[in-house]
Amino acid sequence: MTSVHLHAPAKINLYLAVLGRRPDGYHDIETLFQAIDLYDDVYIKKAADRTTLQLPNHPELETADNSALHALAWLEQWAGRSLPVEITIQKRIPIAAGLGGGSSDAAAVLAGVRALYGLDIPDDELARGALSVGADAPFFLKGGAAVGEGVGEKLTRVKLPDNYAIILVNPGFPVSTAEVYRLYSKGLTGRFAEGRLWRLLADNADIGDLLHNDLQPVCEALHPEAANVRKSLAAAGIEQILMSGSGPTVFGIVKDGRTLEQTRRRAAAHAKQSWSLASARPIPFGVRIC
């Protein structure tokens, strides 16, 4: 094998509660991840001597700080040798949008280079490598639906209904996750809140009943345009609406898949030209080789 092509899916957070701020500055959260069929394409090819990274249409991301290169660096440290590759990432997931695109790309590099070089890395060890890149990166190695605890890295896979679709609207600007958490922290009392997600899941709550995001009001205060996105989906007749992660992407639940295209047209009619719309469905897997 000299090359590999992977799909790196996006995720949405169906539920996100911030339980408290830890002494190390990170936050304990309780979240419900769901992988969706909106993908980046990640192409990895063995190279003769040095690694290169290309992101067509996004040259600003071709830097040493890219999460894909951090993932490769972890693999090289684990292997104790250089693993030169040519990485090309075709971005479809909006950048810094609350959908985990960068973390998913990093997870794809971990899985792809492991396969390409035949590295004997156990899955749990690869997950530790993913965590070194980002708190949500371990989720993308398995995907599906999972409860995330701790900083999001303590994962428990769960079975959720998948008979729905979603409309995603991104207003076209990035949001700093660190800034959103910093502002949210100003309202914390210092006492950790008790989680309630597991109780909701035990009650077999409907997907719509699960929807919750502590960070949404903060993002909307920072970026009022994000609130306009939410209002536009409501104007299109969608009742179950939530921001994903730290934003600014907002999604609406469409229970009847037969009405998805009609609902998408209504959403597009209420959207600004600078916004991007996509439709997607939940998937039971994470990054995978095509």
TrEMBL record:
Superkingdom of origin: Bacteria
Which residues participate in ATP binding? 94-104
Domain annotation GHMP kinase C-terminal: ranges = 203-271
Q: Tell me yes or no: is DNA repair among this UniProt entry's keywords.
A: no
Q: Which UniProt keywords apply?
A: ATP-binding, Isoprene biosynthesis, Kinase, Nucleotide-binding, Transferase
Which Gene Ontology BP annotations are present? isopentenyl diphosphate biosynthetic process, methylerythritol 4-phosphate pathway; terpenoid biosynthetic process
* The protein's name in its UniProt record: 4-diphosphocytidyl-2-C-methyl-D-erythritol kinase
- What is the scientific name of the source organism? Desulfomonile tiedjei
